[in-house]
Write a structure and sequence with these properties.
137 residues; alpha+beta; six-stranded antiparallel barrel; 31% helix
Amino acid sequence: MNDWNDTIIEEFRANGGQVGGQFAGAPLLLLLLHTVGAKSGQPRVNPVMYQKVNGGYAVFASKGGAPTDPDWYRNLLAHPQVKAEIGTGTVELVARVAVGDERERIWNAQKAAYPGFADYERKTTRQIPVVVLEATP
């Protein structure tokens, strides 16, 4: 997975926030999420799909429907101050987990736009976290 992520990150940065390969021509909203390791304290970068929401961005801790949350999710729970590369810019954000009606609204919109997320949901027994990234005050 690290090699795949590294390739996506390199391509994203080389092409002004665009990626090709299997994603060429797809209406893909991708950002590079910068977190701090929950245990290590080391900087981490992960490519993640996002959805624009009021005043920020929603990201989805799907991990392809795996039974556990992705490491980046645990990292931002421990350290909610994050950065995101979006297109050619970088913004500082604070992360919070969406709950209740907000989570359902965002999650349902993501599944409608990208049906693969519904597949991820069917593969796992956990509720896939939806995280809202908002500008720091």
